[in-house]
Amino acid sequence: MSSTEAPMSPQVESDLQVARRGCDELLVEAEFARKLARSRETGKPLRIKLGLDPTAPDIHLGHTVVLNKMRQLQDLGHTVIFLIGDFTSMIGDPSGRNATRPPLTAEQIHENAKTYYAQASLVLDPSRTEIRYNSEWCDPLGARGMIQLASRYTVARMMEREDFTRRFKGGIPISVHEFLYPLMQGYDSVALKADLELGGTDQKFNLLVGRELQKEYGQEPQCILTMPLLEGTDGVDKMSKSKGNYIGITEAPESMFGKLMSISDTLMWKYYELLSFRSMNDIVALQAQVSEGMNPRDAKVMLAQEIVERFHSRKAAEDALAAFEARFRDGAIPDDMPEIRLPGAPLGILKVLRQAGLASSGSEAQRNVEQGGVRVDGGRIEDKALQLPVGTYVVQVGKRKFARITLTG
Fold it and tell me: In its UniProt record, which GO terms are filed under biological process (predicted)?
């Protein structure tokens, strides 16, 4: 904000703090501050857009990072637009990939979309959410409209996208239809007259296309807010079903609780910032308590209970905690167990079992996991490809084999 402009009101500064929490970038912040101030003065809510392609039927906690931000802005009184990209899903978005994503059929999109919004409503307030499908305005464009839209953006600008540049230089094919994806996503912002669009850091290029197209159509350009990609339970890769490191928002309470308890003490604080509804002041105070001697496990229990309660119920969270703690009571977990340090983290669970002497071979380690006999910090491990990051874990195999294992880098 320039020196010639009026200073920001406390309300606008408070709203900006809500927007900034956990975000990677807010562009352009001064523009967004002006939009917030105008909204406060006129009482007219901002139009805040989030587009999600229903490429899979289920949502995991990684998806909720952006949904949480939408809910925070929704609670400030702004209009939240949950946009289902039924049209763009049929194109396929190559964001962050070295090859094109296979486009979905209309039937697949329909099936996925049926459960998508129901799950998102576990985070958003359905009564204050506008649901739209981009086929509403994309289908009527037709061939003539598509050509006119394409004339408003250059190939040179499109090739500024890092993934396209890398693939072009590497001789990896880029289909012409892939250029249409960022164009159509940008056109969504024109059709919806968006003031702010949210997305993951991997969507930054597409969000910026929306800004440019709005200018082309004589609209005030949207601001963009990108959120970090959340690492999965392995603490290494982006949360993903294909990586097996995800926590689904509809999975059983005990499974959800156990997976949250399995994350490292360090990653826990990122989960708090991006997933918890606690204030940042509360989180900072909790960090201080841990640094002063509070067991980080207790802080992790609080986080796990909050998340389970949000997606299930308070009783489900209490029952999940009771089941988790029951495994540590009555001698179920011995006070005295081998202390083992293993280098090379992140380390696969099968290697951990073998190197710690909890399994005599890789095949035995795999069999133990497949039979449900392996627990890490009380949570049953079902994924034999699980990678454990740096941290200390109580690992159990069967009823009698235990070790406290510290993994180092």
Answer: tyrosyl-tRNA aminoacylation
Q: pTM score, two decimals?
A: 0.72
Is 241 part of any known ligand binding site?
A: yes
Half-sphere exposure in the Cβ direction for 185 (13 Å, CA): 27
- How far is it, in rounded angstroms, from Cα 299 to Cα 156? 50
Q: Domain 10-227 belongs to what topology? A: Rossmann fold (3.40.50)
Using one digit for the tens of pLDDT, what is the confidence trace for 351-368? 999 999 999 899 999 999
Instruction: Note whether 10-227 and 334-409 share their fold.
Output: no
**How many residues does this entry show for the chain?**
409
E strand or H helix at 391, and its extent? Answer: strand 391-397
How many whole angstroms separate alpha carbon 26 and alpha carbon 20?
7
pLDDT tens-digit map of 96-150: 444 445 566 777 777 787 788 888 888 898 888 988 999 999 999 888 988 898 8
Q: Where are the domains of the chain?
A: 10-227, 231-326, 334-409
Q: Mind listing the pLDDT tens digit for each residue in 230-271?
A: 998 878 888 887 677 889 998 899 989 988 988 888 999 999
For residues 49 and 221, the answer to whether their CB atoms sit within 8 Å is no
Residues 74 and 18: beta-carbon distance below 8 Å: no
Q: Which CATH superfamily is domain 334-409 in?
A: RNA-binding S4 domain (3.10.290.10)
CA–CA separation, 114 vs 54, rounded Å?
9
What is the sign, positive or negative, of the torsion defined by CA atoms of 44, 140, 131, 178? negative
| Cβ contacts of 162-165, under 8 Å, gap ≥ 24 | 162/205, 163/94, 163/95, 163/96, 163/97, 163/98
Contact yes or no for 325/365 (Cβ under 8 A): no
The residues, any chain, with a CB within 8 Å of residue 133's CB and separated by 6 or more, are 83, 84, 85, 86, 87, 113
**378 φ/ψ angles, rounded to the nearest 5 degrees:** 90, -15
Residue 364 CB coordination number (10 Å): 15
